[in-house]
Task: structure prediction
Amino acid sequence: PSPPSPSPPSPSPPPSPTPSPSANDCPTNATSLNATFPANASKVFCHQNSPTYKGTCWPGFSSEAPIVAQCCDFVGWKIITGSGNCVQNAPSPSPPSPHPPPPPPPPSPPPPPPSPPVDCPTNATSLNATFQANVPEGVCLKGAKTYQGTCWKGYSSSPPLQAQCCKGGWTPVAGSGSCVKVPPPPPPSPPPPHPSPPPPPPPP
Result:
């Protein structure tokens, strides 16, 4: 007798199609939670024993504890008590610059030394007089020191010239004299004319 012919292999059952999302399903992306949840989670009346789903934080977000939520009627994804929370990661610190830090600014130069005190000039051009040297300028008040000046040649003062060495130069004090130019002396009067000699006597 001939051997029985092998039976043809039974065809494998076709894969079950993925159910299309229903209008009553929660969205895969939970925008309010910054997380992604499994698809086709149907909304139910949420209570303590309702199904829970674990979410995955979006890139750039993280959660210390797993984020777990329920797919609730009217509300959508609702985090359960004790669930984590997807928060945005802190920005990573920028890498240090390869350039060396700029050199510190050079120290500021020391302040210039104080200038020596200014003296009043020996020759007081505005007063036509000469005063003693090395008299420092000061703030002239009523009791400031006074100095007697010597009138230049061709000038005289009556009473004598008294002045103070003030900021800005020599300043006469009240009641002081003033060096004024001496007028030139008058020219000498011409001598009287000589009498003319007597005429010579007539010849005899």
